[in-house]
Amino acid sequence: MFKNNRNNNFNEAMLSVDDALNRVLKNINKLDSELVSIIDSLDRVLSENIFSHVNVPYANNSAMDGYAVKANNLKTASSLTPIKLKVIDSIKAGDAPKSKLEDFTVIRIMTGSAIPEGADAVLPFEYTKEEIFDSEKNISYVTIIEKVLSGDYIRLSGKDVKEGEKVLNEGTVLRPPEIGLLASIGINKVNVIRKPIVSILSTGDELIEPGEAYSEYMTYDSNTSLIVASVLKCGGTPRVLGLARDDIQSVNEKLSLASGSDLLITTAGVSKGDYDIVKDVLSEKGSIDFWSVNMKPGKPLAFGNLDLGEGKLIPHLGLPGNPVSASVTFEQFGRNIIMKMLGKELSKNIINAVLDEPIYNLEGKRTYFRVIIEIKEGVYRAKLTGDQSSNLLTSLVNANGLAICPENIQKKDIGDTIEVQMLY
Fold it and tell me: Is the pLDDT of residue 275 over 60?
């Protein structure tokens, strides 16, 4: 286990974003499963194969409101040669048919109702004239002005799903259609990968909670709310640990609250400043794999494991303190950690866009520029949102993408194509 303190040299060379992400994800596993109601399963990942125990539809049923008929009886029906047939019964959806259809009779039927024995088609109401009741004979008749063919307007049993058929595979992300399918075969609970519990800790003596009295020497903590929202957005369950001061006791007290978490995310305290002590505390309570990545914004990024003495190491992602840096690094690392824990495909969402203004990358880092993407004449166009300083949240608010300039490219001109990671 690697230990770090102020007296040794922690001068690991900066990793590339790709190498850092690979190292992170090697330490992350898909979580175990839990049984949830299908109502609560949206965007969750199935941890079991689903087989149907019923046919859908259960029985042959009507696709229209109309009459169950024998198609052969209507061969001559037209508006010029109408056919008058006796109505012997009526079936509504959910009722079992009570009568067998005989030649030259019809049974009134509603959409979804089971097809009665003897019928081989459904005649829509639109193909008839108004039903007439003969009070003397206590019989109804309907006049038919158009024919149908055998099988018309009948939905066959098992047409959608057959009994015993596998309808959904383990690993499927449940969207509204999949949830509807589960309900259609009578399933109300499913086993899915559980949501990761993500503990979130912001650090810094200068921070105060939103809602507290403002001081010109203090800063409202935006990182906690930013990361909470980001965790929720990609399917995790956030647990706010609060604010830690820049001292070992305060950080230790807050970290003790992370017990039972699947992931710890901290903001600030992982660079080279005199008061950036989070990595020191964490190195004493576990291990640090790396704490420097060749990217901008977001160079001071740490990853390791926290040991709270419970027999389980909690992965720790240490994000930078500047809010834009925290957000950008979360999108590259935090989102993918949560995706892997959930059993989902890693986040990409990359498009190619044409630059409407030049960008400069003179530091040899993979740089993420905040841009607004618009479609003009069928082409994605990218424009910077203004000043790219990592403390300016408004530059991120006005962006819907991150233009990615590789480490070895110093400049991209107007009209050049660039990869853009779309946000949200």
Answer: no
* CB of 371 closer than 8 Å to CB of 420: yes
The percent helix, strand, coil of the chain (3-state, each to 5) is 20, 35, 45
- Where does 32-135 have alpha helices with state H? none
Category of 118 on φ-ψ map: left (φ > 0), alpha (ψ -120 to 50) or beta = left
Enter the tokens of residue 62: 């009507």
Backbone angles phi, psi at 337, to 5 degrees: -60, -50
Distances (CA, A) of 99 to 87, 89, 142: 11, 7, 18
Residue from 207, 338, 316, 225 nearest 265 by CA: 316
User: pTM for the full model?
Assistant: 0.87
Sole residue written with tokens 């190619």? 352
Tell me the CA distances in angstroms from 234 to 49, 195, 342, 344, 401, one per residue in order: 24, 10, 9, 10, 17
Neighbours of 289 (CB within 10 A): 18
Task: Read off the DSSP letter of residue 114.
Answer: B
- Is-cis flag, bond preceding 297, omega within 30? yes
* Helix (H) / strand (E) containing 225: helix 223-233
Backbone torsions φ then ψ of 181, nearest 5 degrees: -65, -45
Alpha-carbon distances of 291 from 61, 268, 395, rounded to whole Å = 64, 12, 26
> 333: pLDDT confidence band, cut at 50, 70 and 90?
very high
Indicate the residue type of 215.
Answer: S
- Kindly give the pairing relationship between strand 401-405 and strand 366-376: antiparallel
Q: Which residues share a beta bridge with 173?
A: 45
In whole angstroms, give the CA distance from residue 398 to residue 388: 12
Whole-angstrom distance, CA of residue 62 vs CA of residue 97 = 12
**Choice among 59-63, 127-131, 168-172, 284-288 with the minimum mean pLDDT:** 284-288
Beta carbons within 10 angstroms of residue 258's beta carbon: 23
